[in-house]
Specification:
Layout (H helix, E strand, L loop, with lengths): L1 H19 L10 H12 L18 H14 L3 H27 L2 H12 L7 H4 L4 H23 L7 H13 L6 H14 L1 H4 L6 H20 L13 H20 L5 H5 L3 H7 L2 H22 L2 H19 L12 H22 L12 H25 L2 H13 L3 E4 L2 E4 L2
Antiparallel strand pairs: 1-2
């Protein structure tokens, strides 16, 4: 079994490299890229700065330590950062496969879910193709590992509080709070799991294991606030209760629509073919139809679906909610946030395709028709990734990127510019 899992893991990493290998020459261009480089340079004389949370930095010491290790290894060679992103993305795809296999006990759906995730269906690859996307990849790794251990403990280990799986859950949960925090989303997902799988676990929804994690999360939040000066990135306006609720609901729906219809910038559309530009003319109408379809599917999925399907539908909504009201309206509809959210999305697509195919398994040819849906999403993702790669290559050579490089070289005596490239002098 271990050998088989290693082969599957290697397969996901290889597929991730084949799908995103073109991103290796994207270079540094995003503002967050240069913030991470700046933070790594600050840590040269000591790692204490990894706990800095003063703007423009955030409290994510584990992410900053990861950036620093990459900086020590690759300095300003962006290719190394992207290769690391691709490897981490392959690992995350394997974790999606393992998580689905643990819950559904269905290898076909688990493999298809992992495949859709490695092809970034629902998130469309921005986190893999931007050097600073490491933050999204790392928190997803920790979140999936935390959930995998929790689910295995509850389903396969009798839900014991002192079991190795649960103790590892606690350790990973605390570790996840040392990067971009998703603790509330994780707890929400555990609550949903406890509710939908209470017959399998034989435990209450608010059981001892969940309450311990809740206490740990609250304690960690207090320590982060009091000791490290952490403040959650809340919205910058005070819209009032009714507008707050409306904007949150609207952003949730908009995020879910973007998972199905991700083309939302005129820059990408302008560089695309006639068919894409024609479809974009009806973007508003298409988004309305998709929104109604998602709401309808979610409603009927909860009514008529089995418990696992209900759980993964709930997963998608629970995971997207924090991004729908934190920092809005400044930082909303950032498709990078969908990287973790898309886990539930790809599982629902995979389960729907496999179950529909099995219903008509006696049809020799037609049984493959349901698989056209995941195939369509893979083709769409391939198109988006190709367009984004072209865009990022141009941005890496743009005057704005050169200006950010110059600002970094001026800030640190050990950094200089040669032929438009950053050079570390030590």
């Amino acid at each position: 079994m271990a050998a088989k899992n290693i082969l599957i893991l290697c397969g996901f990493v290889l597929l991730g490299y084949l799908f995103f290998g073109q991103a290796q020459d994207n270079g540094f261009w995003h503002g967050a890229d240069f913030l991470s480089l700046q933070h790594s340079l600050m840590m040269i004389d000591g790692t204490a700065d990894s706990f800095s949370s003063q703007p423009p930095f955030k409290f994510q010491p584990l992410a900053y330590l990861a950036y620093f290790v990459l900086f020590k290894a690759f300095i300003f060679n962006a290719k190394g950062y992207f290769i690391f992103n691709i490897i981490l993305h392959g690992l995350n795809s394997f974790l999606v496969y393992s998580l689905v296999q643990t819950i559904l006990k269905d290898r076909t759906i688990a493999l298809l879910s992992g495949l859709l995730f490695v092809f970034t269906v629902g998130s469309y690859g921005k986190s893999v193709m931007i050097a600073s996307g490491l933050e999204d990849l790392l928190i997803t790794t920790l979140t999936l590992l935390t959930m995998l251990c929790y689910f295995k403990n509850e389903l396969d280990r009798g839900g014991k509080t002192l079991s190795g799986c649960y103790l590892l859950t606690l350790l990973l949960f605390v570790t996840s709070m040392l990067t971009r925090s998703t603790s509330m989303a994780i707890l929400g997902t555990f609550l949903g799991f406890n509710f939908f799988f209470k017959n399998e676990t034989g435990k209450r929804v608010l059981n001892a294991n969940f309450i311990i994690l809740l206490v740990v999360a609250v304690t960690a939040l207090i320590i982060k606030a009091q000791v490290f000066g952490y403040r959650p990135p809340l919205y910058t306006e005070n819209p009032g209760v009714f507008k707050f609720i409306f904007w949150t609901f609207k952003n949730v729906i908009n995020y879910l629509v973007r998972m199905v219809f991700p083309i939302h910038t005129s820059h990408l559309v302008a560089q695309s073919g006639t068919a894409v530009r024609f479809a974009y003319r009806f973007a508003t109408e298409i988004r309305i139809i998709i929104a109604l379809t998602i709401i309808s599917y979610s409603f009927f999925g909860f009514i008529f679906g089995n418990r696992p399907i209900r759980f993964f539908i709930a997963w998608t909504y629970i995971m997207v909610i924090p991004f729908a009201f934190f920092q809005f309206p400044d930082d909303w509809l950032n498709i990078r946030h969908l990287y973790l959210v898309s886990v539930g999305f790809v599982v629902v697509i995979s389960a729907g395709a496999v179950f529909c195919s099995r219903l008509i398994t006696h049809q020799r040819i037609r049984r493959f028709v349901p698989m056209l849906v995941p195939l369509m999403f893979i083709i769409l993702s391939r198109f988006i990734v190709w367009q984004l790669d072209r865009s990022y290559e141009f941005k890496a050579a743009s005057p704005a990127a050169i200006e950010m490089k110059e600002n970094l070289s001026e800030r640190f005596d050990d950094v200089t510019m040669e032929d438009g490239r950053l050079v570390y002098m030590k």
